[in-house]
Amino acid sequence: MIPRTATETLQQLAQGYPILAITGPRQSGKTTLAKATFAEKRYVSLEDPDERLFATEDPRGFLARFPDGAILDEAQHCPALFSYLQTLVDNKPQMGQFVITGSQQFGLVSNISQTLAGRAGLVQVLPFSLAELQHAGIVINQLDELLCRGLYPPLYDRDLDPAHWFSNYVMTYVERDVRQLIEVQNLSLFQRFLKMCAARTGQLLNLSSLSNDCGISHTTARKWLSVLEAGYIVFLLQPHHQNFGKRLVKTPKLYFHDTGLAAFLLGIRDPEHLSIHASRGAMFENFVISELLKQRFNAGLSANLYFWRNNIGDEIDVIIEQGGKLQPVEIKSGQTLAPQFMSGLNKWMGIAGESALPPQLIYGGTESMTRSGIQILSWQAIKNR
Question: Is residue 133 a contact partner of residue 151, using CB atoms and an 8 Å limit?
Fold first, then answer.
């Protein structure tokens, strides 16, 4: 097993919360992480029909089997359990009793906020980070290979062809979750919607354009996008709200949690194809932003990432809020540093003034350095930021 950065966070939360909640996309390693971190606890999968029926019909009897707590996998399948868990941990205030996992934000997170508020510590587990692979001794020197393969755990602990795995992933997990959350009459339209989302990676979200290209209504496009967000397939990067004297763009940008899945949906099947594909720059930008997001989630924190763009075209790829200060990060996929890579950062620093932290540039090359007050990081050194 490749050690997960979130392990330490879970161990810390287990000292202060009676319930630990682990959520994230399917096949991101939630169950493996829970079992490895809390090896002494009994494990029950609520995807098992018998266990689910027991938990639904007799929640008290179901929970009585676990006087020392348990790992309850895919707990969103039994929403009635949450109220009984609340009563149980209130009567027996012992920290780290139960670990619940789930792969749908609508089911797990909404029930936690409604029923278990203040009683559950939440960690969002995404696919491997580059740092986790590096710490495990897995070296990937080719950037295009990493972008094309993605970082889902099964692709690193089994001998699998990524294209075959992603094809099955879309059919068995993504489409199944869609059917559970909403009624989709035409799966081929939904598959087109997925591919159109991949084609818009790194772009401002335009639901009207997206719905028109897919032949669906604006309302349907919004609903389907919400389902993809709930299943940790895509996420929206919000624009930063602070106004530095210019009118700002207020539309979010669309990204995938894993570049391998986005590349598959675009029909990219190997690194050579990606290296000449028009979306390569967007894939690299997506990779960097998802890595920054993983750093926050692995620490048990919410996202503090934004982008910044004004109405005259000035833009910063990522703005990181840190203690009331703002750190600008530019992302460039080129392997050779060029002066224009830093022009946007220099302009933004002049606008932001004292609210700005030292800027960073993350690029597709292999050397890290500091130039003209800008910290320049190789894509391989994102873990060191």
Answer: yes
pLDDT value, residue 385: 47
Which residue, among 265, 133, 268, has the nearest Cα to 190 in the 3D structure? 265
Query: What is the distance between the alpha carbons of residues 383 and 28, in angstroms, rounded to a whole number?
Result: 19
Q: Is there a domain that residue 100 lies in? A: yes
Question: For residues 70-84, b (16+ Cβ closer than 10 Å) or e, as one string?
Answer: bbbbbbbbbeebbeb
Q: Which residues, at least 6 apart from 181, have a Cβ–Cβ distance to it below 8 Å? A: 104, 106, 227, 230
* Together in a domain, 271 and 373: no
In which domain, by residue range, is 98 found?
6-124
Strands (E), the chain: 19-23, 42-45, 70-73, 98-102, 120-124, 234-237, 253-256, 305-309, 315-322, 325-332, 360-363, 369-371, 374-378
- Encoded tokens for 48: 């098992």
Q: What is the pLDDT of residues 168-221, one digit of tens each?
A: 999 887 777 777 767 676 778 888 999 999 999 999 999 999 999 999 999 999
Three-state DSSP class for 337?
coil
Could you tell me which residues are beta bridge partners of residue 124? 23
DSSP state of 140: -
Question: Does the residue 248 lie in any domain?
Answer: yes
Same domain as 374, residue 341: yes
Residue 111 confidence (pLDDT): 73
Give the residue from 124, 152, 181 where a domain finishes: 124
> What is the SS3 assignment for 70-118?
EEEECHHHCCCHHHHHHHHHHHCCCCCCEEEEECCHHHHHHHHHHHCCC
For residue 269, being part of any structural domain is answered with yes
Structural contact between residues 312 and 250, judged by C-beta atoms closer than 8 angstroms? no
pLDDT at position 108, please? 74
Q: Cα–Cα distances in Å, from 78 out to 48, 96, 107, 287?
A: 11, 20, 9, 34
Report residue 286: phi and psi, to 5°. -60, -45
Low-confidence ranges of the chain (pLDDT < 50): 384-385
Calculate the CA 103 to chain-centre distance: 11
